[in-house]
Design a protein that fits this description.
This protein has 194 residues and is of the alpha/beta class. Helices cover 43% and strands 16% of the residues. It has one domain (4-193): Glycogen Phosphorylase B (Rossmann fold, 3-Layer(aba) Sandwich), CATH 3.40.50. Helix 5 links the parallel strand 5 (121-124) and strand 6 (140-143).
Length: 194
């Protein structure tokens, strides 16, 4: 089988404004791949864990993507981590800035969880702190969620040549800066100076 066997995303509607962190750009890209490039469920599958807003369930059905998008509900943390390790690409939509004049400074803990799994990450976000961390980690590709053609082309290239995922290599120097151990050491140093 060629293609991207599995993408993964967890979602909690109670903690996210769906207008900001939405799977819809990915759904639209998958729909376009299916219609225009004859890409099917053997080529790409998207797995969702968590409490999925019924709106997205309806969109999956309306877009006829039920054979490629699988919603599994809440799973244990152990199960989720084990499944993450089996995925080819992790999906991370990020918040947009509330102001066109300011970058978004929000960096979700999910970004660091994904980086710790050491798998390629597809981020959908505009210019932000999270985008910088994702790209500098060596594990991530970021695409503006408004750029549907870039997303379609990126996924299509991965489907045709999954070996392209091998280009993502951990940048341990950057990743170490954000580790819990480094943060703890910095905090300990502050207390030692008091």
């Amino acid at each position: 089988m060629h293609g991207i066997a599995d993408l993964f995303w967890t979602y909690r509607p109670d903690s996210i404004d769906p207008s900001f962190r939405s799977p819809l750009p990915l759904f639209k890209a998958m729909e376009k791949l299916k219609k225009e490039k004859s890409i099917g469920s053997n080529d790409i599958q998207f797995h969702l864990w968590g409490s999925i807003d019924p709106y997205y369930q309806t969109r999956i059905e309306e877009m006829k993507l039920g054979d490629s998008i699988f919603v599994q509900g809440f799973q244990s943390n152990t199960y989720t981590i084990n499944q993450l390790k089996e995925m080819d690409l992790l999906f991370l939509p990020l918040e947009k800035s509330n102001s066109p004049r300011h970058r978004n400074l929000f960096v979700p803990s999910k970004l660091f969880e994904y980086i710790s799994i050491n798998k390629p990450i597809l981020g959908l976000c505009e210019d932000s702190e999270a985008k910088e961390i994702l790209e500098s980690s060596g594990l991530g590709k970021n695409i503006d969620p408004e750029n549907e053609n870039e997303l379609v082309n990126y996924l299509h290239q991965l489907i045709l040549n999954p070996n392209l995922l091998g280009q993502y290599k951990r940048n341990d120097e950057i990743i170490t800066q954000f580790s819990a151990e480094t943060a703890t050491q910095k905090l300990a140093n502050i207390f030692n100076q008091i």
